[in-house]
Amino acid sequence: MNNTDLVVQHVSDQDVHSISKERLRLWLRLLQVNKIIENEIREFLRTEHDTTLPRFDVMAALYKMKKGAKMSELSQALMVSNGNVTGIIDRLVTEGLVIRAAIEGDRRSTRVQLTNAGKKRFEKQAAAHEAKVNELFSAVNYDDAAGIITRLDRLVHEKGE
């Protein structure tokens, strides 16, 4: 066996400490960027579309669930409690953006689904939301965005999410 067959890399305690500190800085920066972007999106939805981020998220989930969903399925998809979703759904029903329908054979559950007006409203909001996110990330080019996503995907897959 020659030297090229076996490569031993030595990492000093100082290197491990530096890596650890840099990863901590990365986590804190991700939190900071997330907070900035989320606040911008919340304000944009409130002022430009007279809605909230939770309402937008509920409508987005229902838009993806073409045949609607039970409240428990919707809550699970959004990772929030049924109680959090119920109030939002109540208001969306009152506004004619969502309908509730009984589920045959299940007296305790109802299916909620976007109405045609709800779909149209969400499509308009979703297009504006995408444009706003694009604006907020305008300093990030395509290759950088793809690279960041690839690296973050590694973290997601390693943690089993």
UniProtKB/TrEMBL annotation:
Annotated keywords: DNA-binding, Transcription, Transcription regulation
Gene3D superfamilies, sorted: Winged helix-like DNA-binding domain superfamily/Winged helix DNA-binding domain (1.10.10.10)
Domain (HTH marR-type) ranges: 23-157
InterPro entries from the UniProt entry: HTH_MarR-typ (IPR000835), MarR/SlyA-like (IPR039422), Tscrpt_reg_MarR-type_CS (IPR023187), WH-like_DNA-bd_sf (IPR036388), WH_DNA-bd_sf (IPR036390)
PROSITE patterns the UniProt entry points to: HTH_MARR_1 (PS01117), HTH_MARR_2 (PS50995)
Domain of life: Bacteria
Protein name (database record): MarR family winged helix-turn-helix transcriptional regulator
Source organism: Kordiimonas pumila
